[in-house]
Each structure stands twice: as structure tokens, then as C-alpha cells.
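Input record, target 12 of the design panel.
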């Protein structure tokens, strides 16, 4: 009728306390991350723009008329030969 050796010892209390702290800590961190995800701003949602490459900048300068066709072709050849090496 009486069961012995099934009482909670000191170490079991320590593990229960540690488990409770871990449980509440994970719950609070999860709640904070969920709120951060839900209420983020538009700038955080958009991916950061990739800076244009050298050929793209060169093509823009040619399109604006800053350089002529010969200079564009020469610089483009230099850029493409540099990427092959």
C-alpha cells in the first residue's frame, strides 16, 4: 500500500527548476521573435540592392554620352580581358 523510493530528491528538484527556467525562457524568446517578425518595417522586408558591376557602370556612362564609342569599346575590352585572367 505504501510505495517507497518514489519521492522527489534534491537533484530532481534542481532539474525541475532548470527545466522550468528553460521552458519560460524559450517561450519568451519565441514570443519576442514572433512580435519582431510581425511588426518589422518595410525597409527590413526589402532585400538590399546589389551594387552595379563595372560593365554596367561603363554602359551607363556610354548611354549618358560621357564617353564615345571607341573609348567604350576599349574599356570594355580591358574589363573583359581582366575577368578572364
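The sequence produced for target 12 reads:
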Amino acid at each position: 500500500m505504501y510505495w517507497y523510493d518514489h519521492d522527489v530528491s534534491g537533484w530532481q528538484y534542481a532539474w525541475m527548476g532548470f527545466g522550468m527556467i528553460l521552458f519560460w525562457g524559450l517561450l519568451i524568446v519565441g514570443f519576442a521573435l514572433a512580435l519582431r517578425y510581425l511588426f518589422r518595417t518595410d525597409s527590413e522586408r526589402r532585400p538590399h540592392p546589389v551594387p552595379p558591376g563595372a560593365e554596367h557602370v561603363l554602359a551607363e556612362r556610354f548611354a549618358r554620352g560621357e564617353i564615345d564609342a571607341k573609348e567604350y569599346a576599349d574599356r570594355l575590352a580591358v574589363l573583359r580581358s581582366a575577368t578572364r585572367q
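Residues 19 and 46 are 39 Å apart (CA to CA).
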